[in-house]
Task: inverse folding
């Protein structure tokens, strides 16, 4: 099972790397880097619940093109900071489906802005963002590997108007499908490597004909755990590709 998981991850990575690059004008809902070490593991034990606060801060002071070269902007501010504050909940039941434990996940947050595309013309407006619900969260636990399959949906609950500079949401529905694994290199499950992939499909944005292209995100990490998994230290990674062009 572990060997098959590694082969599948390698195949997916190769296929994605061979896809034709497209213009990444508008961003999707999935923020890359949100899942790192043991990203393919259903975290709470069966009949368990996890509740955690969330704080995220994103800062940028430059704009680059597809080659990484910086634009020389005129008449625009060259600095933007976005703050996000919320709560994250994850519940896992004792019920089984195809041998996996079924769980659910939700994220509710407020932000002072949302980054829809690369621009610095924003105004601060701390308000509710787009709520994320994951009604399907299936987790398998083997001797030296965990697997997880998910389905989630982003609700356009955040403030949004086409062309607005104080939006806190993206003004669209997003269906997100996820699958991944965490592989443990020793029976005590101290050393581990994980890879979790998320595929986004978006609706048209409110009050516009804009539809964001499909996006694939792969993220995970390599690390070691101590104190029966209570502490994990390692290196996290993420990669994100826009697989189809935006419709504008």
Result:
């Amino acid at each position: 099972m572990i060997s098959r998981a590694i082969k599948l991850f390698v195949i997916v990575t190769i296929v994605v790397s061979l896809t034709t690059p497209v213009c990444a004008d508008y961003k999707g809902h999935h923020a890359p880097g949100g899942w790192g070490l043991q990203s393919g593991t259903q975290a709470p034990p069966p009949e368990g619940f996890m509740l955690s606060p969330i704080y995220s801060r994103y800062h940028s002071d430059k704009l680059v093109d597809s080659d990484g070269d910086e634009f020389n902007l005129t008449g625009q501010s060259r600095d933007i900071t976005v703050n996000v504050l919320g709560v994250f909940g994850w519940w896992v039941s004792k019920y089984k489906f195809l041998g996996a434990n079924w769980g659910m996940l939700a994220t509710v947050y407020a932000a002072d802005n949302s980054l829809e595309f690369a621009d610095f013309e924003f105004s601060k407006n701390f308000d509710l963002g787009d709520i994320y619900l994951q009604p399907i969260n299936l987790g398998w636990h083997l001797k030296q590997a965990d697997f997880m399959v998910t389905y989630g949906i982003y609700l356009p609950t955040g403030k949004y108007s086409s062309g607005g500079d104080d939006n806190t949401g993206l003004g669209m529905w997003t269906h997100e499908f996820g699958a991944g694994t965490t592989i443990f290199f020793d029976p005590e499950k101290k050393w581990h490597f994980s890879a979790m992939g998320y595929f986004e499909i978006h609706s048209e944005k409110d009050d516009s004909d804009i539809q964001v292209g499909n996006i694939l995100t792969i993220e995970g990490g390599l690390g070691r755990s101590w104190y029966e998994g209570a502490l994990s230290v390692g290196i996290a990674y993420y990669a994100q590709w826009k697989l189809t062009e935006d419709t504008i």
